[in-house]
Amino acid sequence: MDSANGVTADELARRLSARPRVRLARLPTPLHPARRFSAEVGAEVWLKRDDLTGVALGGNKIRKLEFLLGEAREAGADCLITMGAAQSNHARTVAAGAAMSGLPCHLVLGGDRPDRPTGNVLLSTLLGAELHFTGLTGWDDLARVAEDLRATLAADGHRPYVIPVGGSTPYGALGFAAAYLELLEQAAAEGIEPGVIVHATASGGTQSGLHAAHRLLFPGGDGGPAVCGVVASGTAGELMPEVAALAGGVADLLGGPHDIGSPYGIDGFLGEGYGVSTPGGEAALRLLLRTEGVLTDPVYTAKALHAVVERGAELAGGRPLVFWHTGGTPAVFSDEHSLVSW
After folding, report:
1. For residue 4, what pLDDT is reported?
2. From the candidates 17, 38, 88, 101, which is the catalytic residue?
3. Which residues are recorded with the post-translational modification N6-(pyridoxal phosphate)lysine (predicted)?
C-alpha cells in the first residue's frame, strides 16, 4: 500500500484524522465483484457502493459533507446554504446532513419550481430544507443568488456557512482522500490489486480527493489504482485543470507537495450536456440492473458506467477495475428523468 517515496497509508490516515469531521455515513461502503456484468463487458469489474452510504438514500456526497460540516462547526455556523440543479444529489445530501446536525438549510436550486415535488426535490422537502427556485441554470448565477442570501441571513444575525456546487472544495475533497485509503484496505482484504478506479466527474471534488491520495501515497502514479474521471460536465480539457487545482489544495491540507501530477479524465460520454441522459448511459444502467440488480441514476453515474461498458477492458489493462458508484438513484424517480413510459 505504500511507496518508498510517498507518505505511508498510516501517516495519511493520521493527517486526515487531525481535520475536523462530523461522522454521518455508514462506512466502509461495500466493495464486491460484478461477475455477470463483467462477463458482458470483458473486464473484471468490482463495484464500490457509495449508493449505500446510509443517509437519505445514499450517495458519495456525504463523504465530502462530513469534512465540510466539521469546518462549519469550527466556524460556528448556525445554518447552511448550498446550490445545485433542481434534482441535485448534493443539495439533498446537504439537507440530510443539516437535519442530522440540527441546522437550518437553504437550497438555491436551478430552474423553476416544479408542479409537484419528485425525486431529490421531494426528499429535500421532507428533510425540512427551504428551497429557493431561481429560474436560472448557470452555476455562476446560482452562486450569486446564494451570496445574496448569505448576506441577508448575516444581516439578520445568522452565521451561514456556504457550500459550493458539489461540495467541491479542498476541504470537502478530503472525504475522498479518506475514501481512497478505505478502498485500498478493502482491496487488500479481497486479495485484489485494482488497476484503475472509474467514476463520473463534474465539479471535481471526488476525483481531486482520490487523485491527491493516490499521488501522495504513490508519487509519479507508480502503484495503487489509478483514477479515471469520466467527464459529465464540459470537457476534460476544461475540467482537469480545475481538478488539479483542487487536488493541490487537498495535498496542501495534508502536508504534501502542491504539484502532485495531472489528473486523468476522458470525454465521449457526456451527450447533450450535464444532467441530460444519453442512450448509451441508459443502456448501461439497464445492463447493470439486469445483471447485478444494482441501480444507478440515469444522468450522471450512468455516463461513467457507459464508459466501463465501452472501454472497460482497455482501462483495466488486464487488472481488476473498480467502478465507483456515486449514488444518485433518487433521480430515477423524478418526473424530469423518467426512464419508462407505457
Report:
1. 55
2. 88
3. 61
